[in-house]
Structure formats: structure tokens, C-alpha cells
Design goal:
- By secondary structure, the protein is mainly beta.
- It has one domain: YVTN repeat-like/Quinoprotein amine dehydrogenase (Methylamine Dehydrogenase, Chain H), CATH 2.130.10.
- The protein is 6% helix and 43% strand.
- It contains 1 helix and 32 strands.
- It has one helix spanning 2-22; strands spanning 40-42, 50-55, 61-65, 68-72, 77-79, 88-94, 100-105, 109-112, 117-120, 131-136, 142-146, 149-153, 158-164, 167-171, 187-192, 198-202, 206-209, 214-216, 218-219, 222-223, 227-232, 238-242, 245-249, 254-258, 261-267, 273-278, 287-291, 305-308, 317-319, 325-329, 332-336, 341-342.
- It has a 5-stranded antiparallel β-sheet with strand order 1-5-4-3-2, with no helix packed on it. A 5-stranded antiparallel β-sheet has the order 10-11-12-13-14, with no helix packed on it. The protein has a 4-stranded antiparallel β-sheet with strand order 6-7-8-9, with no helix packed on it.
Length: 351
């Protein structure tokens, strides 16, 4: 009996040490979260708010929705997270290793390797469990835009950056924010430009980070407020979409493209800029616009709307490999092939 007890104690110590080492590691342990039920396969997409859409290296379309994360393989939809979490999902990323990252509202972030999931929360050092955006920088670090600020994950641990009213700075005390009460500001968008500087769009100010200091992005002394999306185009121009409309920054000057509220901004393979635009006051006047490259040389450009939406808002935009444009709405996902629309509401829409 004594021998069995010794073996049992050794096993317990091994399990305990393994779980401690696992906490901040990128590697997925064998006993990580697995779906308790089989993935739900359907012939229709999500029927609720769909915030973000990406296409992976295999050609699958991924959608982050309030019903979960859906994958579309060209024939059917699969709710990948149905047996993992009931949280609302806002953000998606495929990293350079082919892993998928999902950002949720309330349950932190999930990393999915195609087999199992690893969940990152404030218990692991994540700043907040409400993740609005996810971004991978040139070094392979994963950034999370969250309520209260941002977190950077290097594969071992988190470095957190906290918004304090009109400023943001790194926190070295290990502070995190619980889900309630919700911090007043969130980071909506993060990019690293060609010079290695980071741009962060928040509900408050927009910031530029050089690796040491954060500065407020402003024009004529007026900060850009409530920026929802920041992108860098193929020429190195920085684009903002938010409360102040759609703006382009060429490194020295700012150019205002439209004055209406800009939700999401996206560049297609031809260099055209797509943006969802509306009054931003809850009215059903949202539309998806495309700005071709030639129009950018003009100061005032009248660009016809591509899609008029009766929805309250248009969310994430994607150009798929076949050239079709996908976009999210409060009632699911839509695809525009240049002629017709498909909202994937039922089996008949797949024909």
C-alpha cells in the first residue's frame, strides 16, 4: 500500500506542476478545452450580430457572431464554439502559425488549433475578459484590444496598457479589470505600421505608440475620437473610420474623405477602400461604400453607395479569394458578388 501511495503522490505533483507551467504558455496542452458536443453544422449562417469576418489560408470563411464563431467551407456553416462557450464573439485572427484566435465579450480570448481550445482570461493576466479586437505584430506577439486598454501576449506572459481618461500607459503592477463594472473606454483597433509604430483607436482618443511612449493623434490640436477602425493601405497611408468620418493620413497631412460616421474600413486587392458609413445616431441609413484609387486625388468625391442597408449598422468587411465582398450586420452575414446578394438565411440561399 505504501508503494501505491508514493506513486499516487508523484502523479499528483506532476499534474500540479504541469498545470502551473501551462498557465501562460502558448503551447496547447493535451487536456485543454474540447467541445462537449459535436460541432453544429447548418446550411445557414448566424442570425444575430456578426462583428468580424476573415478568410484563413485554407480558404474557409470565419465569422464572429453573438451566436458563436462560424466557419463556412463553401458548402455549409459550422458553429465551432457551440460546445465551448455561450459568450458573444467580436473578433477573429489567424496567426502566422495557422492558429485561430477568437475574442469574446465576457469570457476572454480563445486560441484554436483545429482540434482543441485554450482560454485566456484575467486569471492568466489578460487585462479584461471583454475583447474587442485581436492583432498580430511583426514579432508574432498577439495584441488584444479590450475594455480598459490593451494586452500584448508574447507566448509566455501579458503586458498590459491601461487607458486613464485621455492618456494610456503600461501597467507593471499586474492590474486587471473584472467584467463589472465595465471600464469606460475600450480599444477598438490596433495596427503596426511599416515604421514599427503602433496605432490604437479607442472610444476616447487615438494613440500612436513607438514602443516607449504613447502620443495622442490629433489634427489642428483636435484629437480623433471614437475611432472604430485603423488600417494601413498598400502605399503606407493610414486610414481612420469613426466619429469624425473617414480620414487618410499620408505621413504628414490628414485628408477628410467623408464626414459621416465611419464604422469599418477595408482595402481590397485592387487598392479600393471599402467603408461602412452612417449617421451613427441609430437611424437606419447605413450603407457600404467603395472608394476607388482614382477618386483619392480629388478633394471632394461623390461616390455612390454600393449597398444600402436598413440595418442599424454594417460591421466587418472582407474581400474573399473569389473577389466577393462579405459583410456583417445585426442579423447575420451577407455576401455581394458584384451583382447579387446572399444573406445565407436558409438552405435555399445556398443554391
Amino acid at each position: 500500500m505504501m508503494g501505491y501511495r508514493n506513486v499516487y503522490a508523484v502523479i499528483l505533483m506532476f499534474v500540479f506542476c504541469t498545470s502551473c507551467k501551462r498557465q501562460n504558455k502558448t503551447e496547447l496542452p493535451k487536456d485543454d478545452i474540447k467541445s462537449e458536443t459535436k460541432d453544429v453544422i447548418t446550411y445557414h449562417g448566424p442570425n444575430s450580430i456578426t462583428r468580424n469576418i476573415i478568410q484563413d489560408r485554407k480558404g474557409n470563411i470565419w465569422m464572429a457572431s453573438w451566436e458563436g464563431v462560424f466557419r463556412y467551407d463553401g458548402k455549409s456553416f459550422t458553429n465551432i464554439t457551440s460546445g465551448v462557450s455561450s459568450a458573444r464573439f467580436f473578433s477573429l485572427l489567424e496567426d502566422r502559425q495557422g492558429n485561430l484566435w477568437f475574442g469574446s465579450i465576457g469570457s476572454g480570448a480563445y486560441r484554436y488549433d483545429g482540434i482543441s481550445f485554450q482560454n485566456f482570461t484575467i486569471d492568466n493576466g489578460l487585462l479584461n475578459n471583454e475583447i474587442v479586437c485581436i492583432y498580430e505584430d511583426k514579432l508574432g506577439h498577439i495584441w488584444f484590444g479590450a475594455f480598459g486598454g490593451a494586452s500584448r501576449y508574447d507566448g509566455e506572459s501579458f503586458r498590459n496598457y491601461i487607458i486613464n481618461e485621455d492618456s494610456i500607459m503600461e501597467d507593471r503592477t499586474g492590474k486587471t479589470f473584472p467584467n463589472s463594472p465595465r471600464p469606460p473606454y475600450e480599444v477598438n483597433s490596433i495596427i503596426e505600421d511599416k515604421t514599427g509604430k503602433f496605432w490604437l483607436g479607442t472610444r476616447g482618443n487615438t494613440f500612436l505608440y513607438d514602443g516607449k511612449n504613447f502620443t495622442v493623434v490629433a489634427r489642428d490640436g483636435k484629437p480623433f475620437k471614437n475611432v472604430r477602425t485603423i488600417i494601413e493601405d498598400k502605399k503606407g497611408n493610414i486610414w481612420f473610420g469613426g466619429n469624425d468620418g473617414l480620414w487618410r493620413h499620408n505621413g504628414s497631412t490628414f485628408a477628410n474623405i467623408t464626414n459621416n460616421f465611419g464604422g469599418f474600413v477595408y482595402e481590397d486587392r485592387r487598392g479600393n477602400i471599402w467603408t461602412s458609413s452612417g449617421s451613427g445616431n441609430g437611424q437606419s441609413d447605413w450603407a457600404l461604400y467603395r472608394f476607388d484609387e482614382k477618386s483619392f486625388s480629388n478633394k471632394y468625391v461623390a461616390v455612390p453607395e454600393i449597398i444600402k442597408s436598413n440595418e442599424e449598422m454594417i460591421f466587418g468587411v472582407l474581400e474573399a479569394n473569389d473577389g466577393s465582398i462579405w459583410f456583417g450586420t445585426p442579423n447575420g452575414v451577407n455576401r455581394y458578388d458584384g451583382f447579387t446578394f446572399n444573406n445565407f438565411k436558409g438552405k435555399e440561399s445556398q443554391k
